[in-house]
Give the backbone structure.
Amino acid sequence: QSKADGKGRVTFFEPGMDEAFQTRRGIEESLRASLRDDTFHVVYQPQVDVEGNVPAVEALLRWKHPELGEISPSVFIPLAEECGLIMPIGEFVMRRVFEETGRWCNLRVAINVSAVQMRTPGYATQVMQLAARTGIDPSRYEIELTETALLGDGPATAENFEILRRLGFSIVLDDFGTGYSSLSLLHRFHVDKIKIDRTFVHGLGESGEVNALVTAIVKLAKSFNLGVIAEGVETEEQLRELTLAGYSMFQGFLTGMPQPAGEIAARYEPAATMRLQA
Ligand code: C2E
Ligand code: MG
Ligand code: MG
Ligand code: MG
């Protein structure tokens, strides 16, 4: 069935196709178009140590829907996962990040990788080819995985994980503490770093239990010999509490907003910037 909507456009609908579903279909269509038109971009958020140095940044995808405006990746990434677009979008992110940051020499760069990518057979091999083609050094990059990304059953997840490690990528367990099996994952997978979820950081000072958890997680990281970083740091108070608890790496609006590669490079990669101008 179809009907004209007054402006001469024709909209299609089927029984049960409600508004939310139409919106999703619309977003999927726009995601596809954006891949074709190359209208995604990547921003980089500083990770700051106790002395205020910035040894690393996290790459975050940005997308502007033609009518709806900026949409958060926490909304469109799950949609992309469902409709089969996460593989091309993930490849776009990695290629763009490698191209933009491959010549940096001070900053390490963290990239988010989705559960669907990790459970796709051959994914890590694609990453290997992309790394070779762009000439990047994997040991300067960190792959951020959530617990869900590691819980994928089937052999592909573990195989991709091992290949990425062998290529030299560091592995970070993102949003640590929010899932059901954070601890058993640490036992099963050799990760290099954990990133405590921002819900804990935001809960600091609200209850003694949250403070105890935040402290327990940094101790856990240290006893496993893992790096540890706190995300979502918004206030001086949170920074102070985290520092007292033993954290020494921070990421959040307080310590640095996500910025385009050019701005990050101008500030933290003067050598790379000069080479480009020369
Ligand atoms: P994430 O990996 O945990 O990334 C951190 C998110 O927290 C980012 O949201 C960042 O902008 C936001 N953030 C940073 N500082 C603060 C703060 O002080 N307070 C608060 N409230 N938030 C802060 P963003 O960019 O909207 O991304 C949301 C999620 O989408 C990410 O969470 C990640 O899971 C996913 N994502 C982003 N880019 C990619 C990508 O390229 N690929 C995949 N697969 N997922 C991505
Ligand atoms: Mg992340
Ligand atoms: Mg996170
Ligand atoms: Mg998150």
User: Anything to note?
Assistant: DSSP finds 13 helices and twelve strands in the chain.
